[in-house]
Every structure is written in C-alpha cells, then in structure tokens.
Amino acid sequence: MAKTQFDSIYKPKILVVDDEPAITIGLKRQLSSQGYEVRTASGGVQALEEIEQNSPDLVILDLMMPDLDGLQVTREVRRRILSNVPIIVLSARGESRQKVEALDLGADDYLTKPFGLDELLARVRVALRHRQQLSNPMVSASPTIINDDFLTIDLEKHLVYKEGQEIKLTPKQYETLKFLASNPDKLITHQMLLHHIWGPEYGKETQYLHVLIGQLRQKLESDSATPRYILTEPGLGYRFRLPERNDI
Question: How many CB atoms lie within 10 A of CB 168?
Fold first, then answer.
C-alpha cells in the first residue's frame, strides 16, 4: 500500500455530514486514501454529537439536511459548543443565499456540488493549515503576516511595503488589509467586512467595499486588473491569497 503524507504521524480527523449515503461513503473513501481519519454523520443532530464528543479537526457540512440543516449546525457549533473547528459547507447550485448566510454564521469555506476531488483536497488543506496557524502561538504572534519580497505587511509597526517601498494606507484601507491578511485563504463575506470596518449597522453597502478594495489593489498589486493577493469571490466576498514562491 502506498504511503501517504500522514503515515506515522498524527492523522487529522475529518467529519463528513450529509444525508446522501453515496456522498458520505465516497468522501470517506477519498479522504481516507489521503491519510485522513474520517467519520460521518447523516444529519445535524448526529453531527453536533460527533463534534462535541470527538472534536474533529475539520467538518465538511451539507447545507440541506433533515432535523437540523447546515445553517443551524453552524450556528450551534459557534454559539453553544464554542468550537473554532473549520467548517466547509457543501451547497447545491441555486443556494447562494444560504451559502452566504452560512459563511456569515461562521463557516470557513464552501464547495458547490458537483465538485472535483482536487478542489476538495485543496480546500481541506487550506482549512487545516489555517487552523494550525491559529493554534500555533509562534505563528499567530508573528508581527509579519506576509513577506514574499514583493509585499510585506508588518502588523506590529502598522507598516506596509511594496518592493521595499513604504505604502501609505488610510485607516480603513489598513484595517481592511489587516483583516483579510490575518485570515489567509479564507473567504471573507461582504457582510463580515462591512461589520468589521464600518460597524454592525452596515451589511448591504457593498459599493463601499468595491471602492475600498479597488483602492487597495491600486496601491498593492503589480496589476490591479489581475490581482495576485486580494481575490474576488463573485457575489460573496473576498479572499486574501498567499502566493507560492513560484508565483512571484
């Protein structure tokens, strides 16, 4: 049997929640072959019990389920169980409103059915890496979020450099960049950003964000028309991408 990246070391625990047996069986087989320890649940109530009792490292959660749906499960995990376990929601096409609501409730990412195995595994790796960064004090306490020889963000000094030259940002521009860069590779919805930057009374003024993000891209990106750092998730929000070295 071929060795996987997790042989002889800790295997991350993944909980797959879906009321379609074909999906839970298929995902369990595919994820297990990559070295993950996988458990499944067929409904929301069972999912909450699994999360409380077994503390998974990641939850893959369908939105439409019997008893408790994905929105209710996400709300309960964040409010009652008080867990920061990453949640990737699965949605069918046409469920955009529920998808955004799940993200605003605390889900970390989403996949639209049908999806490919490569995309799923990429989202899983990103979510687990982000969880590890948050739980590692040496990483989370680092004053520099990013330093790739093109863009440097120094949170301790509140300074941003592009190709070694300091970039002047307004307070709102800096807070937006800080919030996005502090959550690398995680989808941040329009509502999350509006609440964080302007306050809880804001939630639908997406035109404010379009202007602000456009200004940031003009200052930070080498080509604002094809951004490398601040990516748009159409109709949902933005994602701060940490480029690989060979992308630079």
Answer: 9
